Amino acid sequence: MSSLVHGTNTLAVEVTNITTHGVWLLAHGKELFMSYEDFPWFKNQTVKSIISVEELSLGHFYWPDIDVDLTEEIIEHPKRFPLKVK
Fold this sequence. Notes:
The protein has two helices and six strands. The chain is mainly beta.
């Protein structure tokens, strides 16, 4: 008897953890951390609005409830993109 092969993961992106310091995102097997210091838009949001993330294209993420879109490059190198909400 052989086991069935598991299906592929249909979630390309998901929020895996929300802490007092920031948000952890898992995308294509890669963990990305967004600190509230660098990404203040997430700090006072509900869990529901933070976990509601879509991948518009490879490495381009959008949170419709917050109206925030970020690329993987921005998340990995926030100092290169210093614009922040006031």
